[in-house]
Automatic annotation (TrEMBL):
Entries under Pfam families matching the protein: Amidohydro_2
Domain Amidohydrolase-related: 6-331
Record's keyword annotation contains Lyase: yes
The entry's keywords: Lyase
UniProt superkingdom: Bacteria
Entry annotated with the keyword Lyase: yes
Lineage summary: Bacteria, Bacillati, Actinomycetota, Actinomycetes, Kitasatosporales
Protein name as it appears in the record: Amidohydrolase family protein
């Protein structure tokens, strides 16, 4: 039986989260930082772009119709990264992740077998991360989405060890999706905040997980990196060289950095068939999953077509299109039949 087509990078917008943080101390400062990082020209485009896509981000019927048009059988839905709100205090963070988990679960429940979801974990409060993960799993979600860092903390921070341990123990998915780039105003024009910033943040976050030994300690972790892992997979040779040439670079992980790419899953959203082919070469066809960033403008309206452009073998094409996700997420085939 042909595997369903599975998109692991799709989002939901949750107005209830923005309502509960409205007017709280810290929100205005966070938005000012976001505005400086993106620049006025980007904000002028992003606002109307998101507004036009609200129905696809909130209405299950509209989402399913768009999926049918794309030839996508199943989506793994994660909250818009704009909902992270890592500036929030513990009480607010608790409300944010609970709302995110509950609303995402409700959205997916409207289309069982076709929609699966991820919740949120507040990285700014490491002690809450395990509770947030458990809360998500209890509501039928498959794991949680996190950013590339929290204020003052990298993903290599020892405070996150209980979170990684719990994620491995439960078989939960952790979807690494950056939001914002700490290069700040250097990227405040031409949408460099996204085109350069997101791949850079992916590379930094994954490097912290690799070089610190997190992936040695939790080899069963189900980690999916958005945007094809950013710059790291195509420049992993430099990391390998540092690991072998310098004692400081090689002190934290047991194997060359490139070997850990085969322990990470990556989405296919790289916007270049040559880069996608390179990603598959270094990580393995069994480690790449179809991703579209539905429905944002930096995604693709035709994820299967973008995958086909890489001219993979039939076996690899089918694996990336859906077979790998079915195995990783332990999915059943949805009621909708047929794939492109």
């Amino acid at each position: 039986m042909t595997s369903p087509t599975v998109d692991v990078h799709a989002h939901i917008l949750i107005p209830e989260i923005e309502a509960l943080v409205a007017g709280l101390p810290g929100l205005a400062e966070a938005r000012e930082l976001d505005a400086r990082r993106n620049g006025p020209a980007a904000l002028a485009v992003s606002g109307p772009m998101v507004g036009e896509r609200v129905p696809r981000l909130t209405d299950t019927a509209v989402r399913l119709a768009a999926m049918d048009k794309q030839g996508v059988d199943i989506q793994l839905i994660s909250p818009s990264p704009s909902h992270y709100h890592y500036w929030a205090d513990e009480n607010t963070a608790d409300k944010v992740y609970r709302t995110a988990n509950e609303m995402t679960a409700a959205h997916c429940a409207a289309a069982p077998g076709r929609l699966y979801g991820l919740g949120l974990a507040p990285l700014q409060h490491p002690g809450q991360a395990v509770h947030a993960l458990d809360h998500a799993l209890e509501r039928g979600l498959l794991g949680v989405e996190i950013s590339s860092h929290a204020p003052g903390r990298e993903l290599s921070d020892p405070a996150y060890e209980p979170f990684w341990s719990r994620a491995e123990e439960t078989g939960a998915v952790v979807f690494l999706h950056p939001f914002g780039c700490t290069l700040d105003e250097r990227l405040d024009r031409w949408y460099l905040s996204n085109t350069v910033g997101q791949p850079a943040e992916n590379a930094v976050a994954l490097s912290h997980l690799i070089f610190s030994g997190v992936l040695d300690r939790y080899p069963g972790l189900k980690l999916i990196a958005a945007h094809g892992g950013g710059y790291l997979p195509t420049h992993i040779g430099r990391s390998d060289h540092a690991w072998s040439a310098r004692t400081d670079a090689g002190a934290g992980c047991a194997q060359p950095p490139s070997s850990y790419l085969k322990r990470i899953h990556f989405d296919s959203l790289v916007h270049d068939p040559r880069v996608l082919s390179s990603l598959i070469d270094v990580a393995g066809a069994d480690r790449v999953l179809l991703g579209s960033d539905f429905p944002f403008d930096m995604g693709t309206e035709d994820p299967v077509g973008a995958l086909r452009a890489a001219r993979l073998s039939t076996t690899d094409f089918d694996a990336v299109r859906g077979g790998n996700a079915v195995a990783l997420l332990r999915l059943a085939r949805p009621q909708r039949g047929g794939t492109p």
